[in-house]
Amino acid sequence: MQLLKDRILTDGVVKEGNILKVDSFLNHQMDIDLINEVGKEFKKRFDHCPITKILTIEASGIGIACIAAQYFHVPVVFAKKAQSVNLDGAMYTTKVESFTHKKVYDVILSKKFLGPEDHVLLIDDFLANGCALLGLIDIVKKSGATLEGAGIVIEKGFQSGGQTIRDMGIHLESLAIIDSIADGKLAFRE
Ligand code: G4P
Ligand code: NA
Ligand code: NA
Fold first, then answer.
1. Is the complex ipTM more than 0.95?
2. Could you tell me which residue ranges the Phosphoribosyltransferase domain spans (predicted)?
3. Residue 127: CB within 6 Å of ligand 1?
4. How far is the CA of 60 from the centre of ligand 3 (A)?
5. Residues whose beta carbons lie less than 5 angstroms from ion ligand 2
């Protein structure tokens, strides 16, 4: 998505450890006009899919998912992150190990809001090692819902998440894929 790539080049800031800061337009301050275009693009790429629900994970995914949902006209449900709490049977739970943040946390979702009748589109801001997305995929599996695919705004193509998820046969659409960050310079995948 050219508009997004241009914006990353203009306003993205590369930090130590291959971290790309996009907090001026995507995941802290949010440029709603840009995210509207992101939502339209997700709709275009998953237009043939019978999606009934968009699933994301707190926190940064929520705003993006909500704007995208206006084009799909389906509810958004977001999984919550919890520090190993006592979970009762009314929740789907899965453990996520974040390499980025070096910690393990539970991802939880009420069983009320996802079931076998659902066709799910996953949406998130970043895909790096993919632990967060794999957690959501596990929750979809536990719910018996059909996974239609995953829409990611920025994929770090030099980390393993994208490959892992494509190898699972999942329809993954990343609107900008960064193949390398060398000397502070970004290279996008064509
Ligand atoms: P991981 O397995 O390495 O933990 O990677 P994963 O793809 O699950 O991403 C973990 C978290 O790190 C995600 O946020 C993701 O958005 C964020 N992240 C990874 N690489 C970058 C980057 O280069 N720039 C920015 N800005 N974020 C990055 P999260 O833990 O789900 O938290 P939240 O921000 O959504 O609350
Ligand atoms: Na995120
Ligand atoms: Na994030």
1. no
2. 51-153
3. yes
4. 5
5. 60-61, 124-125
